[in-house]
């Protein structure tokens, strides 16, 4: 079952608004490393820089999710769970128009342990040898 055309157009508009909003915030100011004589000021600036980088990373991920959702609209796959291929509820899409998984599959994905980084797995392999 696919979404009606008018609902898809509604979600397309919402996604385009979100993409424009996120694209407008892509200002990396605050990342520059500044030196000061006061070590406390340097710590505060380093913390602010870390928060800015974290925010930019979140926005980049969100922008990618929005672009992927717009691509799914173009290909006709929007509103279909990428995992189980069942319809994603309109309620979920209204809350998160960029949702790629139905609620059940998203909950299952959230319960799965995250894969260790490559560096971590290399060291685990080395320790096992």
Task: Give your account of this protein's structure.
- By secondary structure, the chain is an all-alpha fold.
- It has a single domain (5-128), classed as DksA, coiled-coil domain (Four Helix Bundle (Hemerythrin (Met), subunit A)).
- It has five helices and no strands.
- It has helices at 5-24, 39-75, 90-95, 103-111, 118-128.
- α1 (5-24) runs antiparallel to α2 (39-75).
- The chain is elongated, with a radius of gyration of 20 Å.
- Mean pLDDT is 82; it is low at 117-129.
Structure summary, number of beta strands: 0
In total, the number of domains comes to 1
Provide the β-strand percentage band: under 5%
State the low-pLDDT regions, or none. Answer: 117-129
Helix content: 55-70%
**At the first level of CATH, what is the class?**
Mainly Alpha
| Rg, Cα atoms, Å | 20 Å
Largest sheet: none
Annotation field: number of helices: 5
Distance between the termini: 51 Å
Fold topology:
Elements: H1 5-24, H2 39-75, H3 90-95, H4 103-111, H5 118-128
Helix pairs in contact: 1-2
